[in-house]
Amino acid sequence: MTNRITQRIQIRFRDTDAMGHVNNAVYFTYFETARGRLFKELFKDKEQLQNLPIIVASNSCDYLKPLFVGTNIIAQCYVSRIGDKSFTITTKILDEDGTVYASGKTVAVFYDYEHSRSIRIPEQYRTVLKRFFVDE
After folding, report:
1. Of 2, 23, 106, 131, which sits with the fewest C-beta atoms within 10 Å of its C-beta?
2. Is 132 within 8 Å of 81 (Cβ atoms)?
3. Could you tell me the CA-to-CA distances from 2 to 20, 67, 105, 131 in Å, in that order?
């Protein structure tokens, strides 16, 4: 079993901007699509997935090469850091030859919504996150 999730993504004309390449904001939608698939793999139980006690603390993207309609891309993501209260998901946007067009990181924090505060990662979740951990 690989500990990376891959999600094929079709670039739509509406993803592009006036310059003809994929708009910078759209990359975060690609990241979110892959992250959603990762969460579905991590948390197979639908109720657990719907009640996941996390909140996104930050998103970042390094744009390496422009993308255009017609490029077949894959979003590949994995857990790259597991901390005390948060974890990081790294997502890479690649073509079928493995050329990386963008790389991003999402920091998610385990969160107690009732008390509006971060919490330690419960051991049951830490164990699950380790299934898709890749040491960079």
Report:
1. 2
2. no
3. 35, 27, 19, 9
CATH number at residue 85: 3.10.129.10
Q: Which element (helix H / strand E) includes 83?
A: none
What pLDDT sits at residue 51? Answer: 82
In the chain, the N- to C-terminal Cα span, in Å, equals: 18
Asked if residue 136 is part of any domain, the answer here is: no
CA distance 8 to 92: 12
Q: Residue 102: give the domain boundaries.
A: 5-130
Looking at the domain assignment, is residue 85 inside a domain? Answer: yes
User: Among residues 121, 123, 43, which one has the least CA distance to residue 88?
Assistant: 121
Q: Which pLDDT tens digit goes with each residue over 8-40?
A: 999 999 999 999 999 999 999 999 999 999 988
Q: What rounded mean pLDDT belongs to the chain?
A: 93
Q: What is the total count of domains within the chain?
A: 1
Write down the pTM of the prediction. Answer: 0.91
